[in-house]
Amino acid sequence: MPARRERNDMSARSGRAMARCGTRLAGAAVIACALLAMPARGAQCSFSTAGLGFGVYDPLAAGADTANGTLTVTCSARTGGERRNGFTATLSLSIGSSGSYAARTLRGGGDVLRYNLYLDAAYTTVFGDGSAGTLPMTLCYRGSRRDPCGGGGLTAGVAHSITVYGNLPPAQDVAPGSYADNLVATLTF
């Protein structure tokens, strides 16, 4: 039986570019949601996001622009086996319009702004699908008899917030305007 796939497009709007102390830009990463479920599994999951907006970008600023976004995931066990033994879910992000995890790009007009999304506040682990040096987010839900998580684990049926850390490097000389990228977040369970 084929996997069920659902999409929920979430959008983020960026502010208008303004002139102050040089060229200023606005950028947003828009994340669309997709659920992949195996019907034979006893878990049911849903998730949502409001996207991530960098706001107004100043290419003359010395440091990077950073922004955080949140993905909210809720998974519950529907069958006895899943409730007893626990289960895992994997959340991954696509590359977006750049075609590479090395540097995702926000596009506006004919220009691009390099940025990336990370799993950590130190901006060292690129949030991806496990390829090209990236990592997905693995969510482990403990069962009543067995904990596949090695201690702890998440509670099924409770919404869990996952922070996504965005970093937009400084000194990118581009025209004023609105810049955006579209990514797909996929939850496999």
From TrEMBL:
Residues 1-42 form the signal peptide. SMART domains: SCPU. Transmembrane segments: none annotated. The keyword Cytoplasm does not apply. It comes from the Bacteria. InterPro entries: Spore_coat_component (IPR053167), Spore_coat_U/FanG (IPR007893). Pfam families: SCPU. Keywords: Lipoprotein, Signal. Residues 36-186 form the Spore coat protein U/FanG domain. PANTHER family: EXPORTED PROTEIN, PROTEIN U-RELATED. This is Putative lipoprotein. The lineage of its organism: Bacteria, Pseudomonadati, Pseudomonadota, Gammaproteobacteria, Lysobacterales.
